[in-house]
Amino acid sequence: MSHAASTRVQEFIGDPFEKESPVSQEKLEEVFGDIQSDMRFDHELNGCLNCGICTATCPAAHYYDFSPREIVQLLWTENLDGIYDAMQEKIWACAQCYTCAARCPFGNSPGGLIMIMRETAIKHGMESAKNVLRPFSRVMLKLISTGNQLSPDMINPEHFADWGPNISKVDAPLKILRKAIPMATLNTTETAWEVNLKTSVELYTIWEETGVLDQLETVDENLFDVILDIMDEKREDWADWQEEQDDDD
Q1: Do 90 and 157 have their domain in common?
Q2: N or C: which end of the chain has fewer CB within 10 A?
Q3: Which domain does 72 fall in, by range?
Q4: Are residues 171 and 113 in the same domain?
Q5: What span, in angstroms and rounded, lies between the C-alpha atoms of 163 and 76?
Q6: How many other C-beta atoms are found inside a 10 Å radius of the C-beta of residue 85?
Q7: Which runs of consecutive H residues, i.e. helices, occur in the chain?
Q8: Are residues 112 and 141 in the same domain?
Q9: Model pTM above 0.90
Q10: For residue range 29-68, what is the model confidence (pLDDT) as tens digits?
Q11: Last residue of one domain, picked from the residues 124, 147, 162
Q12: Quick one: 89 and 197 in the same domain?
């Protein structure tokens, strides 16, 4: 007696009222291929008992239409339509607390898988990534241009008026926070944002070589142009300084 071959891979699961996916099969396979080819993928996904422990302990699942178990099942069964759909909204609800990874009996890390999916969404310039990252343009500008965005003396109503009325309740224990930061240069905005030319050029090189700037261009072209101008100016200043040192020698 022969048995029919079975597979965990589901060829198509989408909207039951639609005859075909709104995204081409080629695009779906490309997106999943990028997720699957990530070196972390096989480490984060080991199988799924569908027990639901990850979702039961997930803080985000209590407040949003989000389930770590659903994410794992979509990836485990290679449900390309479902994966693409989850990348439009659901993956952005994860708080990256990794409670799911700590509880999973299979050793899965839904939070780690979601991180890969987020990076892939950015790589492909998905609208969901653009919408999520748009409010953080100021943070990304400071982080990429100086290597640091926040210092203790910034945690006050004056610096973050756009956070809304609740920011007025923030009264940061600055002395404690400063002691918790090992490097004195990061204690205040004045010192945290004073980065020497060599360090700046090294930072920009890292952002370029690791593909960070390429990804930034796909989600926020205006911010990319601003950072590019800053980088060019810093590199010119660094080249001028080096020439001055050569002349002195």
Answers
A1: no
A2: N
A3: 25-124
A4: no
A5: 39
A6: 18
A7: 25-36, 41-44, 53-56, 68-76, 80-86, 99-103, 110-123, 127-133, 137-146, 174-180, 189-192, 197-209, 212-219, 221-248
A8: no
A9: no
A10: 999 999 999 999 999 999 898 999 999 999 999 998 899 9
A11: 124
A12: no
